[in-house]
Design a protein that fits this description.
The chain is α+β, with helices and mostly antiparallel strands. About 30% of the residues lie in helices and about 20% in strands. The protein is built from 17 helices and 24 strands.
């Protein structure tokens, strides 16, 4: 036995939920059922409370909003209960660090919302034309290269803006982000409508302020609005951007209503002038004082540690990608890989004792659709690996090339063209089976979206796939547009370039060929793809893009993971409602 300093179990953070929100949801629903609220008004209200319609009648998607991705043990239990009773036995971690449930019967939505609210989890403004979930680097507070811990600041922003004056009446959704690592952008601030990056200048802490980033049909890397905002002015700066967007955003065309479109319309100089004027107005109104929420206590308690004499088989492969040393000596953060973001009821419950036994008393979700357990004493890593293995959560390859990201796709989304999770499962199996490719192709990732909107973030992937359709002999066949070279760096976002369109059954072969070429050329980063002429890349996969009538087989007309013939069944998606 030995002893080390370990963090006190988290006393629990203040929740973001209010039971009045659920009460009002039920009141509005009853009014809608009586015909007193129009379908459009009900849909808008429902979305602002985190409840989406699906392409299937009678069921909904519920989005649990988790600012900074932080989840306490009590909230893990609530997430498990909702998964067990209403979510088909699983939850789904998203690229915005939320947890979603699909196929929730409409009659059970109220009960699900109340269970979440009991643990402090809100769905308020998780969807709709609102300030969405605040994402944050999951290593905030433990990363070696951050100037300070940004966690209390992102929590302060989330609390300040939730149910705020403008937060649910915007022209379109506003996705915010805050991060702290220097030299990287793990919080993906450059693809968000509003982003903050922690900085230190002349002994003062503050943030670089970004705005206007985004994916979808108009890709934009966010512009720098202010190079340094003193930390005390954080809320004022965020309010100024939101108020400008509220005033100048397009309320007539939802397809061109995001902040990036508004900036394009009036021009960067005019937008910066609007922002500066709004900042001055806020100061004249008395400003917005910053009050930082109380954070859980740091590591102070000493407890005996059970030792594992010899790590179990697979430990070294798991630790190579999962374990990240912290700036706090003797501790590591552990990435728990979830296949396509899925986690079962049993796994959610099984994590609860591990959070307090091995970590700081809470988990964090990630924008790679994984989980992070921090403050694990280094001596206890083999024992944690054993416990995770019992839950089926000790998977190697966390945040590696094989750790594929995917949106839900046509299994539930009204906008999706293809069943992206089917391709995600196939590519996960391929890459887990080809560790030679994964180990040699450093610096790449794979992301999949079922439509152009890019919820799977394929535009910022080393290799990205976007769902589409082609006609072969007059029949619709699923296909994927192939992008290469995307990613988010320290000072900008780079978007992948389109090199071809491949039938769905050839997507896996496309990945293998691209990776073999990448390795043969001794490439080491996604920038390689931009150094290769597009014509050469198109030629590289040209034979895979063709699907002639004479060569087509019946499988070419069935999407991956599906049994029925493929057909496009898109309708107005509620992410644009």
């Amino acid at each position: 036995m030995s002893v080390v300093d370990v963090p006190q179990p988290s006393p629990g953070r203040l929740g973001f939920a209010r039971h009045e929100d659920v009460d009002l949801f039920v009141t509005k629903l009853e009014a809608f059922e009586r015909g007193e609220v129009s379908p459009d008004d009900w849909r808008s209200f429902r979305l602002l409370n985190g409840v989406y319609g699906q392409r299937q009648d009678g069921v909904n998607m519920i989005r649990a909003k988790l600012p900074a991705g932080i989840v306490t043990p009590a909230q893990l239990e609530a997430l498990a209960v909702v998964a067990e009773r209403f979510g088909g036995g699983k939850g789904h971690v998203t690229t915005r660090q939320n947890v979603q449930y699909h196929f929730v019967p409409q009659a059970d939505v109220e009960d699900a919302l109340r269970i979440l609210a009991d643990s402090g989890i809100t769905t308020k403004e998780a969807c709709g034309h609102s300030v969405r979930n605040w994402t944050c680097c999951p290593f905030a507070g433990v990363a070696k290269d951050e100037p300070f811990d940004p966690t209390p600041y992102v929590e302060a922003l989330a609390r300040h803006l939730l149910r705020g004056k403008y937060s649910s009446t915007l022209p379109r959704k506003l996705k915010p982000s805050l991060g702290g690592c220097c030299g990287t952008d793990c919080s993906q601030a450059f693809i968000n409508d509003l982003g903050f990056l922690a900085r230190s200048r002349d002994g003062q802490i503050g943030f670089q302020l970004l705005a206007g980033g985004g994916l979808s049909t108009l890709r934009r890397s966010a512009l720098v609005v202010e190079d340094f905002v003193p930390a005390a002015e954080l809320l004022e700066a965020s309010d100024a951007v939101i108020r400008v967007f509220h005033r100048i955003g397009n309320r007539n065309n939802k397809a061109k209503a995001r902040l990036k479109w508004a900036i394009d319309k009036i021009g960067v100089p005019a937008f910066l002038a609007e922002y500066t004027a709004e900042r001055a107005k806020i100061r004249e109104e008395g400003g917005v004082p910053l009050v930082l929420p109380v954070q859980p206590a740091p590591a102070t308690r000493r407890v005996p540690l059970a030792q594992v004499a010899d790590p179990d088989p697979g430990y070294a492969a798991w630790a190579a990608d999962a374990v990240r040393p912290q700036k706090q000596p003797g501790f590591s953060a552990v990435v728990i890989r979830l296949i396509l973001g899925d986690i079962t009821t049993a796994q959610l419950r099984g994590l609860i004792p591990l959070v307090t036994t091995y970590g700081e008393g809470e988990l964090r979700t990630t924008n790679e659709q994984n989980l992070v357990l921090r403050y694990v004493p280094d001596a206890r890593l083999p024992a944690l690996h054993r416990e995770l293995a019992r839950l089926g959560l000790a998977l190697a390859g966390a945040n590696s090339l094989s750790d594929v990201t995917s949106c839900p796709g046509a299994s539930s989304c009204k906008l999706a063209v293809t069943a992206s999770r089917g391709l995600g499962a196939q590519l996960t199996e391929l890459l887990d089976r080809r560790p030679d490719l994964v180990s040699a192709a450093k610096g790449l990732d794979v992301k999949i979206s079922g439509c152009p909107h890019g919820c799977g973030q394929h535009y910022i992937a080393g290799i990205g796939f976007q769902g589409g359709m082609r006609k072969v002999a007059g029949r619709p066949a699923p296909q994927y547009l192939v992008y290469v070279g995307g990613g988010v760096g320290a000072d900008r976002a780079d978007f992948g370039k389109l090199i071809g369109k491949v039938p769905v059954r050839r997507a896996a072969a496309t990945v293998e060929r691209l990776l073999e070429f990448y390795i043969a050329e001794k490439a080491t980063s996604r920038a390689f793809w931009h150094s290769v002429p597009a014509d050469r890349l198109r030629t590289l996969i040209a034979d895979l893009t063709e699907l002639k009538e004479a060569d087509a087989i019946e499988e070419d007309f069935i999407d991956l993971g599906q049994t029925m013939a493929f057909e496009v069944q898109t309708s107005e998606g509620e992410c644009s409602a």
